[in-house]
Amino acid sequence: MPSEYGPLRRGPVAITVAGTRFLIPYRPAAVWAEALGHHLGSLAAALADPEDRDEMAELLMENPYARADLERESLRILGEAAGRNWWEAGRLVNTSTGSEVLGRMVLAGVDPWARTVGEWCAAVYALCVKGQDEKGRVKFDFTLSIPPPGYEDAWDDGGSSDPAAFLASLKG
Amino acid sequence: MGDDTYYTVQVKGTAYKFKPIPQDDLAMVLTVANMGASQVKILKALNKVIGDSAGAEQWDQITDRLIAGEIKPAELYDLFRNIMKRQNEEPTKATARKRAAKTASAQ
Known about the structure:
The complex is a heterodimer.
Chain A: E1 13-17, E2 20-24, H1 29-38, H2 43-47, H3 50-62, H4 66-82, H5 86-96, H6 99-107, H7 117-129, H8 134-145, H9 163-171
Antiparallel strand pairs in A: 1-2
Chain B: E1 7-11, E2 14-18, H1 23-34, H2 39-54, H3 56-67, H4 73-106
Antiparallel strand pairs in B: 1-2
């Protein structure tokens, strides 16, 4: 479960690929956005230092399980850094690169080179729900929270089987 | 797609036959290329999968031409993309062949 403090962290994060531990240095939101634009499954490698990236490439060539490790770790660090599910973070970052949202963010003084990816996601989220009534906000939260195909099991509904409680949890 | 499937690809005027590249290897090369690894690592990944696909004898010829500068390293990535494209087209062709056979047998 992503930590609520994750969005504020400005430190390195550890990942393990094929049994090898790497430290991914702190990167501002702009770097995450660019890396996410290439390939989500190799996000952690794109954020790594060049030497570590090349070592990861070697592991991918040598170990058939390394690619799955890299993908799993990429999704994990995205979720942890944003303090929300990785697909929500991915959608918010992708939304932020559209000219209208990016323009509003820049005009509001939110600098992607000065903010963590978590802070950036929080700002995009705030912009998206700003001025929306309760219904619009629940709808946006619900749309954002639906996992992509293949990741349905990762959907955390809070363990409740009550639809009303589930909808209420989306507001939280 | 049987074991005898191969694709003929022209590389600077010479035709070579390539076996299909396993999906895991295709994904591995694409991951290495997308993650921003150095050119050397991308070449190494290409070398591994195209070498397997071409077979030892043809790969020897291709590497000789690479060393001689007749084939540029960037063209190796084009070759990889070409093989991948042919592979991706294959299931569509197979479906079309099945449909045509079914239509013919129904007539």
